[in-house]
Amino acid sequence: MSRRTSERLVAHPASTPVITLRALDLTHPGWDLAMAAADLAEGERARADRGVAPVRRRRLLVRSGLRRVLGCLLDVAPNDVPLVTVDGRPVLPGSGLGLSCSASEGVALVAVATGATVGVDVQRHRDEEAADAAAEGWLGPAERARLAVLPPGPDRLRAVTRCWTQKEAVLKARGTGVRRPPADVVTPVADTGRAGPWWLAPVAVPGGYVASLACDAPLDAGDLDVAPLTPGGSR
């Protein structure tokens, strides 16, 4: 790594985290998979190529999207970003940046935080899947009690999906993923709040989806601006 690149990887301390959020429409016909693959390291391309066509497409576009965002922030080419994977999560060694990505069907999110650890999760919401949550065992007793006081119907079911995205976001921020039981993370059953030491906030995504961000520093949901990352774009 060059000295110039190393200097750009040093994150300046901030009193509050600066979070960059980008959303990708994975169904957009303008994506060039060959260009996306060129952004990736050899090991990343190999991992993408092991997936069936839809999985390969998602892996290429999400990893390329993360590299493009980081390249813009650090003023280096996407394929020059010294990104590595540690225990399944993206890491930029020595940078002080918190990184997280998530994808569900046609929507993906990339989160980069200066001065904080973050996790992000997006899920396609389906009423029938949310209705099965109690039987699946990933809601804790306190969460089930809070959900029970909500009026039956779409709002309660959407709140269930919100709980899931918050749990996933926390588990990603911890670096454990679903290797730890989701029931261990007790969510507030609200758009914002805390889950242990993690602050939670909603992320704006297209209709039919729900997304949440977890952070180890206080969050103001009003500060979470999400910008689209489009084919050919880097910001």
What is the terminal separation in angstroms?
23 Å
Total strands: the figure is 10
CATH level-4 homologous superfamily: 4'-phosphopantetheinyl transferase domain
Q: List the secondary-structure elements in sequence, H or E.
A: HEHHHEEEEEHHHHEEEE
Largest sheet: 4 strands, mixed
Instruction: Please tell me what the overall shape is.
Output: globular
Q: What is the SS-derived class?
A: alpha+beta
Record the strand order, biggest sheet. Answer: 4-5-1-10
CATH topology: the name is Ribosomal Protein L22, Chain A
Total separate domains: 1
Percent in strands: 15-25%
Mean pLDDT: 91
Uncertain parts: 1-14
Helix content: 25-40%
Rg for CA atoms: 18 Å
CATH second-level architecture: Alpha-Beta Complex
Molecular structure report:
Helices cover 34% and strands 23% of the residues. The chain has 235 residues and is α+β, with helices and mostly antiparallel strands. It has a single domain (3-228), classed as Alpha-Beta Complex (Ribosomal Protein L22, Chain A), CATH 3.90.470. The strands form 3 sheets. Strands 4-5-1-10 form a 4-stranded mixed sheet, with helices on one face. Helix 2 packs across helix 4 and helix 3 (42-49) packs antiparallel against helix 4 (53-74). It comes from Geodermatophilus amargosae. This is 4'-phosphopantetheinyl transferase superfamily protein. Residues 118-184 form the 4'-phosphopantetheinyl transferase domain. Keywords: Transferase.
